Amino acid sequence: MVTAFPPEARPLRALLQPRSVALVGASADARSFGGFVLGNLLRFGYGGSLHLVSRSSAEIQGQPCVKTVEELPEGLDLAVLAIPEAGVADALKTLAARGCRSAVLFASGYAEAGEDGRVKQEALAALARDTGMLLLGPNCMGFTNYAGAVPLTFEPLQRIATDGQPGIGVLAQSGAMAANLRDAFLGRGLVVPCVCSTGNEASVTVEDVLAHYIADPQISVIALYAEQIRRPALFLRLAAQARVAAKPVVLLMPGRSARAREAAASHTGALAGDHATASALLRREAVVVVDTIDELYDTAAVLLRHPAPPAGGTAFVTGSGAMKNLALDFADDIGLPLPALADATVQALRAMLPDYAVAENPLDYTTIGVRQPGLIGELIHTLLADPAIGSGVLAIPVGPEVAQRDKAEHIVPALARAAKPAVLVLTGDTGAIEPFFVEAIRASGVPFFRSADRALRALRRVAQYGESLQRAARADATRTPALPLPGDVPSNGLYAEYQGKAWLQAAGIAVPRGALARHLADAERIAAEIGYPVVIKAQASALPHKSDVGGVVVGLADAAALRAGWERLQASVRTHRPDLVLDGVLVEGMGPRGVELVVGARRDADWGPVVLVGLGGIWIEALKDVRLLPADLAEADIVQELERLKAAPVLHGLRGQPGVDLAAVARVVAAIGAQMRANPDIAEIDINPLVAYPDRVLALDALLCMKVAS
Q: N or C: less crowded end of the chain, CB within 10 Å?
């Protein structure tokens, strides 16, 4: 399926599929950048017109040279600048004036090197904008289009024919990471149609290359390393296109830690965004966000074989009780379900297994593989047919030559026939594998590992991808009207609690009975109407943290306690904030104890809105047990996320305490998400705590913050 380019993404035909190339900085020194590029072009048999610029040579390896850029033909598709930074700007100006459509810039010393370099890079970006010229880099390693025999990088490479087979498109801002990914996939015998390093991205960004890869019929999976996604809205739209086109995007994006964000800035001149928010919204579009480079290698390889995997847990098959036990522990550690099997599956397995084997998942088939190697394949297919199973792992030792031949002839073909992702793990670390066995594995296309841990991590990501595809189909596409705001927006954008609660009530979210009191007499009347005990809270848009100034008094049991509490609250606020004028004091009924949750939402300036749900009250900062979710998640999927909290057992009831109404919690999360989508001026919403009971929920505190002009 070919997908049209969005208008913001620049078509890259002239860059990645050039019909004419100029090499500026060509050199007879085979180990110079220009020498490496020329060697690559000649080895690959580049079929377009080739033009060399060299100050010192009239001819290199039989190719004629000109001395200056001004002598090049007009209207070239691409120029490779294998020259120092000092000469780049003038060369580009001349090339642009001569109608050159694109250029690859290897030179460093730009935004990654500090403010002076950033100014130079912005000048390159301005030239690209003004002339329409596409610039790949600077500070990049170029690209290699294996499918089109265009190797414009300074690494010496050998041509590898793709023969039109589907493969993995490699895309990275880091040149070294692009090379790492390329070598890993080629080392597995996988097809890599194109490898591209975008470097500092003065002009061409990962979004542009991603659009090109999505439209390329030979690329089935996209493996991406990005330290910053510079056009998030476009990237999310492209990710949605990739999802619709059944082209998985597997992304490794550093920046979870503060030190990683600092390193990214120094490495590519990138300014890191909010990693957690980006990850939540990327997963919404079924981008497979991984944590390690091993996961990037492994997950992309599995998805190349199975680009539309089903959701579901994993079946782990082995002939070792020890491996079975280790798999149970490790799968639990990483959150990969090893589901219980359906009765029909158990009965089918029992018919094949000896009496002393247990028909369960993980499955230890004992020693039957020694006598009946073909039976292992039948066991795997039986497990994969179970509706709860989305993928399978077979973890077995390499064994002696005779055993390897059995596995090559019986087990590998069985795994290759699997309709669901099924991977082979040969345990024993670097234990020798016979060449015929290696060849059988490669020819089959079965994803192959030497580590069960890595296989399980990869299948966890594959399962998450399958789940993301289903969730995207269930996403809430309704257009909820934006609720009217509770009065004029304060200058700081922050509404007082009583205003925020009025807004929550309009959204269908329950809050305690109560009202705003301007005077003590008002408070006494309100308390009498709602009944004691009550809580009183100071109210002003400039006072979001009321407890810090003594602005909250709880447990007032009668009128006398209310009067004393009122005076204490007023005195404390005057002491701490003598300049503050209160709107009044909120008087509310005290609710019964329940499970305290937090439900919040924030709008990232680059990525858009996300919602948050988790353990609230004082525990949110201590335990950080929360889930960050896209704002359009369906209620059933929100419940599923609640089940993934570490505190999930608390929600179901512990030590005689009743469970809470998860559906009611999900409705609150969905309502907050709907309002974030409906009103782009909302910056943040915070309900902490949202108290959950067996039959309802109650918002005890509320913060509503609007965007304000900077």
A: C
d(CA 460, CA 688): 32
Q: Which helix (H) or strand (E) holds 588?
A: strand 584-589
By DSSP bridging, strand 313-318 and strand 389-397 are parallel
Calculate the average pLDDT of the chain. 93
Domain closes at, from 545, 569, 589: 589
- What is the reported pLDDT for 2? 39
Torsions phi, psi for 159 (to 5 deg): -70, 135
Let me know whether 577 and 685 are in one domain.
Answer: no
Q: Residue 424 is part of which domain span?
A: 309-474
Tell me: pLDDT of 4 over 60. no
pLDDT confidence bin for 702, thresholds 50/70/90 = very high
Alpha-carbon gap, residue 297 to 73, rounded angstroms = 42
pLDDT value for 259: 54
Q: What is the tens place of the pLDDT at every residue in 393-430?
A: 999 999 999 999 999 999 999 999 999 999 999 999 99
Same-domain check for residues 222 and 196: yes
What confidence tier does 322 reach under pLDDT thresholds 50, 70, 90? very high
> What strands lie across the sheet with 167-172, from one edge to the other?
150-152, 143-145, 194-197, 167-172, 219-225, 249-252, 288-290
Mean per-residue pLDDT, 346-354: 96
Q: Residue 111: name the closest of 201, 198, 227 by CA.
A: 201
pLDDT over threshold 70, residue 265: no
Task: Summarize pLDDT for 631-659 with one digit per residue, the tens.
Answer: 999 999 999 999 999 889 999 998 778 99
User: In this structure, how many other beta carbons lie within 10 angstroms of the beta carbon of residue 343?
Assistant: 8
Structure tokens of 399?
Answer: 């064994």
Report which DSSP code applies to 417: T
What is the radius of gyration, based on Cα positions, of the chain? 31
HEC readout, 530-575: HCCCEEEEEECCCCCCHHHHCCEEEEECCHHHHHHHHHHHHHHHHH
**Under a CB-based contact definition with an 8 Å cutoff, are residues 207 and 9 in contact?**
yes
Q: Does 484 reside within a domain?
A: no
Q: Indicate whether 448 and 531 sit together in one domain.
A: no
Q: Which amino acid, one-letter code, is at 619?
A: W
Confidence (pLDDT) at 323:
96
Q: Cα–Cα distances in Å, from 581 out to 382, 518, 520, 538?
A: 72, 11, 16, 10
pLDDT of residue 478: 87
- The DSSP result for 432-496, as a single string, is ---HHHHHHHHHHT--EES-HHHHHHHHHHHHHHHHHHHHHHHS----PPPPPPSSSPPTTSB--
Spatial contact of 160 and 173, defined as CB atoms under 8 Å apart: no
Structure tokens at 23: 């090499």
Q: Please tell me whether residues 190 and 283 are part of one structural domain.
A: yes
CA–chain centroid gap for 175, Å, is: 21
Q: Which two tokens stand for residue 129?
A: 């904008």
Q: How many domains in the chain?
A: 4
Residue type, 251: L
Which phi and psi angles does 370 have, rounded to 5°? -65, -45
Say which CATH number the domain at 440 has: 3.40.50.261
**In the predicted model, is pLDDT for residue 272 greater than 50?**
no
